[in-house]
Every structure is written in structure tokens, then in C-alpha cells.
Amino acid sequence: MKPTIKLCVFDFDSTLMDGETIDILAKSYGIGDEISRITHLTMAGELDFFESLTRRVSLLKGMSYPKVLDIMENLTYMPGARETIAELKKRGAKVLCFSGGFRIATEIAKIKLGFDADFANHLHVKDGFLTGQVGGDMMFNDSKGDMLLRMQSLLNISRTETMVVGDGANDLSMFAHADTRVAFCAKDVLKKAATDIIDTKDLTHILH
Predict the structure, then answer these.
(1) For the residues of the chain, what is the DSSP string, one character each?
(2) 1 pLDDT more than 70
(3) What residue spans define the domains of the chain?
(4) Is position 11 annotated as part of the catalytic site?
(5) How much is the pLDDT for 71?
(6) Which of 13, 23, 118, 137 is catalytic?
């Protein structure tokens, strides 16, 4: 008999959202190839997440913040995201989003998709433009695992009652603290740590 899931934590980029937020911003800013190459190496576990994140964000320096906002409002979410979150909440689970990306994206997604809370990073803005600096909750390789442990303690939820869903190497730290670990259209490095693997872009498969 499978345990009751009381806490479900989703990654955002390429999990709840169909794509990588920073790659979409970079493409709009004309530096897509350079940033997507770094993103790919990072998600495969070949680059340190903190160094990769700060390096990529620095390349966005000077980008118009109103343009960033417009892009964030029009992101494409993963098929089945809204329905899956609604069903998990109906079953009594708390649903969170941990993102190594940006709160400017996850805050909007929280309203549109209906999850309970989001933890991500902040793009620094000055005079209406990105400064190329970033800070926040999810800056390091172990940030998601650390936050998951704190949430489990706060909510009095065990690892057997926890499900995590992600696609890249920076999800490994939260995979270490959950008994149900879903690799969703994931890199090989994460599949090796998963209990369940879904290779179809439809999050409702999680419910089955």
C-alpha cells in the first residue's frame, strides 16, 4: 500500500513550466545560445549551480524590467500542471514550488496554477533595468533539500509522506529527503535517484 502524500514539491523550470525561464529571457535579449549552453551543462550536473546562476544572470544586465514582466506573464505551463495540482490539493496535500529560477515567474504561476507557496530567487532591478545581480532562497546545489527539511519540520510531515518532482541536477538535494521521487522528462543524473520516471510531457501521469 502506497503512503498518503501530504506534501508535494515541484521544481518549476521544465517541470511546472515548459522550458527554462532564464533561457527564454536570454533568447529575447539576443544571447540565447550562450546562456542555454550553460543551462544545459548545469542541469546535467556538470557545473556548480551557484556559479552557473550568477554567471547567467550577469549576462542579462541591462534588460528592460517591463519586458521581463511581459515574458513572465506569458510563459507556457506544462500540460496537466493545473489539473494535477488541483487533484493533489483535493486529496489533502500541500503543494509547493521550489525553483532555482525567479520569483517573478513563480509568483505569477502560483496564481495561475494554484500551488500553495513558492520559493525562488530575486532578480535585482534598478531604474527599470536588470542589474545582472541575483539573490534568494534557491541559490545553491543544496538549497532545495535544505528548504524541504525545514518545510517537513514546520508542517510535521515525514519523508514517507513527501513526493518531489523535478528534472535536473539541482533537484537531487530534495530527492534525498523524500521517499517518492519523480523524475519528470529528466536528465539522466536525476533519473538514477528517482523512484518513478515519467518521460511524457503530461503531469497528470503523476496521479496514476
Answers:
(1) -PPPP-EEEE-TBTTTBSS-HHHHHHHHTT-HHHHHHHHHHHHTT-S-HHHHHHHHHHTTTT-BHHHHHHHHHTPPBPTTHHHHHHHHHHTT-EEEEEEEEEHHHHHHHHHHH--SEEEEEEEEEETTEEEEEEEES--STTHHHHHHHHHHHHHT--GGGEEEEE-SGGGHHHHTT-SEEEEES--HHHHTT-SEEE-SS-GGGGG-
(2) no
(3) 7-207
(4) yes
(5) 97
(6) 13
